[in-house]
Amino acid sequence: MTSTKKAIITGASSGIGRALAVVLSNDGYALGLMARRVHLLEALRSELRQPAWIMPSDFENPDQARQDFRQLCAQMGTVDLVVLNAGANHRSADLSWEHDQKMLQVNVASFVALAHEAMRIFLKQGAGHLTGISSIAGVRGSGHVPVYGATKAFLFSYLDGLRQRVQAECPQISVTDVRPGFVDTQMIRAAAFKFWVASPQKAAVQIAAAIRKKKKRVYVTRRWVVAAFFFRYLPDWLYDRCYRIIFKKKTGVDRA
Ligand SMILES: NC(=O)c1ccc[n+]([C@@H]2O[C@H](COP(=O)([O-])OP(=O)(O)OC[C@H]3O[C@@H](n4cnc5c(N)ncnc54)[C@H](OP(=O)(O)O)[C@@H]3O)[C@@H](O)[C@H]2O)c1
């Protein structure tokens, strides 16, 4: 099969990004792969059906990440699809600013830096597709991951605004907000409370389908749309009570 389409995936070294790389490669995409762990990207490349470019990058430095993204785009020539998937979730019991700052850099600052770069290219080309991986965690603030959840809520609003802005200028540009529930990756291995856990492969197949259909937003797996509705509209007293019960179970401390 000749590969005509080109896509960049950030955070392709593991989990959802890695699984999506395999699905998109099977769909005929040549891929640009970004992450810090180059040996994992190289191992992934050897499994792909289509050619792939590797660009090591640390998104804790958004200016450097932007340079790296530009360099990758220059190497690839054209880009039809950019999937901003890289994300960090540093769980800290003590509200550590050092951890939270890293999360803000990776999940928000680098995301915006690369999304703007992608849009610059798409506007010039007159077409393109940006997909951002947010999370069910953005639906409502959670005491388990206050900053992580807030970074994902930022993406909900940002991706809506970005879509409106670029489509007014160029209707051929698509923006998809993917909101996964729990997916069995390194990120949630230590989570005390999880349910409806999907495999990265299943998540990747559903994300690829949403990209093909150019959906505005999608919950992965699909039943998480029900959980999102439930989380959003649960009264505060009940939502807070549930958190305290889980907190007590996890820590043995009753602060209710
Ligand atoms: N798993 C879930 O239940 C779940 C649910 C909702 C949303 N999500 C979102 O899905 C996305 C993928 O996460 P995952 O579940 O697949 O977890 P994962 O296996 O831990 O993957 C995270 C990816 O992000 C990259 N990354 C992290 N920090 C980075 C940094 N400083 N610079 C560059 N790349 C960095 C990692 O690459 P390197 O470490 O090699 O740099 C890795 O490839 C994230 O945005 C996450 O928030 C996950």
What would your notes on this structure say?
It is globular and about 55 Å long. It has a single domain, classed as NAD(P)-binding Rossmann-like Domain (Rossmann fold, 3-Layer(aba) Sandwich). Strands 3-2-1-4-5-6-7 form a seven-stranded parallel sheet, sandwiched between helices. The protein contains eight helices and seven strands, in the order E-H-E-H-E-H-E-H-E-H-E-H-E-H-H. Helix 1 crosses helix 6 and helix 3 runs parallel beside helix 4. With 256 residues, the protein is of the alpha/beta class. The mean pLDDT is 94. The longest helix is centred in the middle third of the chain and has 29 residues. 50% of the residues lie in helices and 16% in strands. NADP nicotinamide-adenine-dinucleotide phosphate (NAP) binds next to helix 1.
List the helices and strands and how they pair.
Elements lengths: L4 E6 L4 H12 L2 E7 L2 H8 L6 E5 L5 H15 L4 E4 L12 H29 L2 E6 L12 H24 L3 E8 L19 H13 L4 E4 L3 H10 L2 H16 L5
Parallel strand pairs: 1-2, 1-4, 2-3, 4-5, 5-6, 6-7
Q: How many distinct domains? A: 1
Task: Provide mean pLDDT, rounded.
Answer: 94
Question: How would a crystallographer describe the biggest sheet?
Answer: 7 strands, parallel
Number of helices: 8
From the 3D structure, determine the CATH topology.
Rossmann fold
Strand-residue fraction?
15-25%
Helix share bin: 40-55%
With strands numbered from the N-terminus, the spatial order across the biggest sheet is 3-2-1-4-5-6-7
How many angstroms does the end-to-end distance come to?
61 Å
CATH architecture field: 3-Layer(aba) Sandwich
* Rg measurement, Å: 18 Å
**CATH secondary-structure class:** Alpha Beta
Structural class: alpha/beta
